[in-house]
Amino acid sequence: MNELPQATPPKTMPFGAEAFQKNHHTEIRWLGNSGILLNSRGYCMMVDPVLEGFDLPLLIEMPIKTDEVQHLDSILITHSDNDHFSIPTLRKLLPLTTALHAPKYVAGLVKEKMMFEALGHDIHASFEEGPLKITLTPADHLWQNESKKYDRLFKLDDFCGFWIETPDGTLWIPGDSKLLPSHLEMPEPNAILFDFSDNEWHIGLDNAIKLANTYPNSALLLSHWGTVDAPHMNVFNGNPADLLDRVDNPERIQIMAAGESFILEK
């Protein structure tokens, strides 16, 4: 591990088959970085799962191995960066599911690289999966256009967030994004998967706090932090302590262990 200080989450809480069983509520388990497992009354969905194939050393143990996942009803992917779109992980998860939803560009990559007919959507489009209604929300994460690594011009509709309505409340995943005006004009969600990376292509710390205080009753499930050993990279090394004195109602900040369960409530 790098000797520079970097905030870390509580010790990983491994889970297994019990996390995929039918229940009478909606629970969210953080998978590390920006990934979650959502189980809503037995309907199981992963969002941006990266369970293997990291290109940086890790600070945490993964809460479940890819080979231990028994089934998924669907998968959601916000964009094509490899800390959200993990080809090694998806190659093992896709045989366990019948649906992967993503922006159209990402859906095309899934078909090209993994021969799986993913479902591509426009921003603001809505669809239903089991008891869930899901809407793609806008995101601005166009850092690729300033890199010589890519030979295409990326567009805003290659990236998204997800607004997920469950029988037990609403979860909003803004995705990797600069703060957009529309982000401050949403209905108040019951919970936000909350990126607070102080990075120019992410929301930035000050704007993350602005977003949090726009929705003062939303639970904040911290994400995009405490997973990879990269203290020199501000995109990965957020510190929850920077939020505590600036976020209204700081008791709603959820500093979760990987694998820990959060119960979503209206």
Automatic annotation (TrEMBL):
<feature type="domain" description="Metallo-beta-lactamase">
    <location>
        <begin position="47"/>
        <end position="225"/>
    </location>
</feature>
<protein>
    <submittedName>
        <fullName>L-ascorbate metabolism protein UlaG, beta-lactamase superfamily</fullName>
    </submittedName>
</protein>
<dbReference type="InterPro" id="IPR050114">
    <property type="entry name" value="UPF0173_UPF0282_UlaG_hydrolase"/>
</dbReference>
<dbReference type="InterPro" id="IPR036866">
    <property type="entry name" value="RibonucZ/Hydroxyglut_hydro"/>
</dbReference>
<keyword id="KW-0378">Hydrolase</keyword>
<dbReference type="GO" id="GO:0016787">
    <property type="term" value="F:hydrolase activity"/>
</dbReference>
<dbReference type="InterPro" id="IPR001279">
    <property type="entry name" value="Metallo-B-lactamas"/>
</dbReference>
<dbReference type="Pfam" id="PF12706">
    <property type="entry name" value="Lactamase_B_2"/>
</dbReference>
